[in-house]
Amino acid sequence: MSTRVAVVTGSNKGIGLAVVQALCKQFEGDVYLTARDVGRGQEAVESLASEGLKAFFHQLDINDLNSIINAAAFFKEKYGGVDVLINNAGIAFGVADTTPFAVQAEVTLKTNFFATRDMLTHFLPIIKAGGRVVNVSSFVGTRTLNQCSPALQQRFRSEDITEEELVGLMQQFVDKAKKDEHKQAGWPDTAYGVSKTGLTTLSMILARCLSKERPNDGILLNAGCPGWVRTNMAGSNAPKSPEEGAVNLVYLALLPPGTTAPHGKFVSDKEVQPW
Ligand code: NAP
């Protein structure tokens, strides 16, 4: 049997780095710390080495389709696929940031929704039987869902929404934000929140597809929330350390063989959350 492999995006710092650190201790196989910047990634690998932990490195910028395609080809060639994928890379504009909302909407959706979807498009076909996929979403995405118009809420919660319909809705949010018409169209005033509503919904759609298309492969795909965590993104007032934020994500990544649930859920503190 080939060596098992776990891949974590955006893991040179913050929650992603803490996930790699935990996987180095708990996952039986090779663990890949990936980063868009080679220097920052290698520095993080060295910081783990100084703690006696062995992580491997591969460059991966989720906003660069070639980088995604190269990485997927590398894991297919070297390991025959991927056993554990944690889509952690994400961005957020600070609350005090004065960048126009139209730009915040486009840039935030680009990374957190569209680029993460590109990752899933190219990596899901190489996820091995028994694989685990964790999309790092947020409780903010659930709060944002509840602030959408009833019509949008109905679509995000429906069992028959397709990936194409969801992509269309996310693009509609960006287009409306550019014309300052998003509120009239039923969207709340949060680009980060909408990106995570989209990512959680995408996780539910793709889990249903996996169950249908690969029913015997036992792959579990979920959206997970780390909680509110002290990182560059969330600042120093958050209650959880990155290590504590990693716990729920690592739990989802290491659901034991033969487990059938959770799958296609939004999970916080190891509990399936209402959607
Ligand atoms: P962070 O400290 O800002 O780290 C974000 C990581 O993502 C960095 O390594 C960053 O790389 C990377 N990244 C950004 N864009 C990328 C791209 N295009 N390609 C590859 N990597 C990219 O943030 P964090 O708090 O650890 O957040 C990690 C995840 O948890 C995010 O998805 C976030 O939305 C989610 N989350 C966080 C909280 C919280 O309270 N912190 C709560 C809920 C969910 P660079 O160093 O190169 O910028």
Explain what the structure shows.
By secondary structure, the protein is of the alpha/beta class. It has one domain: 3-Layer(aba) Sandwich (Rossmann fold), CATH 3.40.50. It contains 9 helices and 8 strands. Strands 3-2-1-4-5-6-7-8 form an 8-stranded mixed beta sheet, sandwiched between helices. Helix 1 (14-26) crosses helix 9 (242-253), helix 4 (101-123) runs parallel beside helix 8 and helix 7 packs antiparallel against helix 8. The longest helix has 23 residues, at 101-123. 43% of the residues are buried. The site of NADP nicotinamide-adenine-dinucleotide phosphate (NAP) has 31 residues, from helix 1 and helix 4. One of its GO terms (molecular function) is carbonyl reductase (NADPH) activity. Belongs to the short-chain dehydrogenases/reductases (SDR) family. InterPro entries: CBR1-like, NAD(P)-bd_dom_sf, Sc_DH/Rdtase_CS, SDR_fam. This is carbonyl reductase (NADPH). Pfam families: adh_short.
Major β-sheet profile = 8 strands, mixed
Q: Tell me the β content.
A: 5-15%
Number of helical segments with 4 or more residues: 9
**Overall pLDDT, averaged?**
98
Q: Do you know the CATH topology?
A: Rossmann fold
C-alpha termini separation: 39 Å
Output the radius of gyration.
Answer: 18 Å
Strand order of the largest sheet: 3-2-1-4-5-6-7-8
Which ligands occur here? Answer: NADP nicotinamide-adenine-dinucleotide phosphate
The helical percent reads 40-55%
CATH architecture heading: 3-Layer(aba) Sandwich
EC number: 1.1.1.184
GO molecular function, one term: carbonyl reductase (NADPH) activity
Keywords: NADP, Oxidoreductase
Pfam family, one: adh_short
